[in-house]
Amino acid sequence: GNARQSRRVSDGSALWDAAGEGMAARKSMLDMGRRSTGPALGAPQHIRSLDQLYAQAEGCVVVLRAKVKELARASQGKLPVTRRPAHRATDDVSALSAETRFVRWAEAEKDDVLQRRILWTPLKSKKQAMEKVLYRYQGNVSRILDVSRETIVFETPQDLAACVHALCTDQDIAVERIRNLMDSRNQSESAA
After folding, report:
1. Is 103 helix (H, G, I), strand (E, B) or coil?
2. pLDDT digits 0-9 by tens, 107-143
3. Radius of gyration from C-alpha coordinates of the chain
4. For helices 126-135 and 50-75, what crossing angle results, to 10°?
5. Largest CA distance in the chain
């Protein structure tokens, strides 16, 4: 409700401050989720266009990355790092295999070179999002949960559990769904 929304915006201020200067104007996005301000009275309404969803997603990338770093630090998580000197963004996970290694954020945090080599995940392609909206969600854009996404890798199940716990107890995060793709009951679902 409104009390939770107000708390989430105020609790997220430190995260926005950590994300960098000039971000204060985007603070209201932290609480938008899949909603947007309505045109007439400012009432929240479901997002109805991919353009609107992508505009919000691009505005929140810095915040998501700051949160990923925080979660990785709390759970011994590792982030993908390219072996090449120049950063190269990719949307193809198979391209990660030969030229990527995974480094604990706690290690990369202390090394400017490693930080520049982190392979941050680009937004889901608009083509993939459109297919998902049409085939899985019957045209309802507001149901897409993974336009912005990142990768954290864990060495042990305990590290994974620590991250899930951190996600579920973080006041800035609303967990919409957890799927275990290692469970055969979930493998038939599309990972898109």
Report:
1. strand
2. 999 999 999 999 999 999 999 999 999 999 998 998 8
3. 18
4. 100
5. 53
Q: How far is CA 63 from the centre of its chain?
A: 8
pLDDT for 141-173, tens place per residue? 988 888 999 999 999 999 999 999 999 999 998
DSSP string of the chain, one letter each residue: -HHHHHHHHHHTHHHHHHH-TT-GGGTTHHHHTTEEE-TTT--EEE---HHHHHHHHHHHHHHHHHHHHHHHHHHT-EEEEESSSS----S-GGGHHHHEEEEEHHHHTT-HHHHHTB-PPPPPPHHHHHHHHHHTSTT-GGG---SS----B-SSHHHHHHHHHHHHH-TT--------TTSTTTTTS---
145, amino acid identity: L
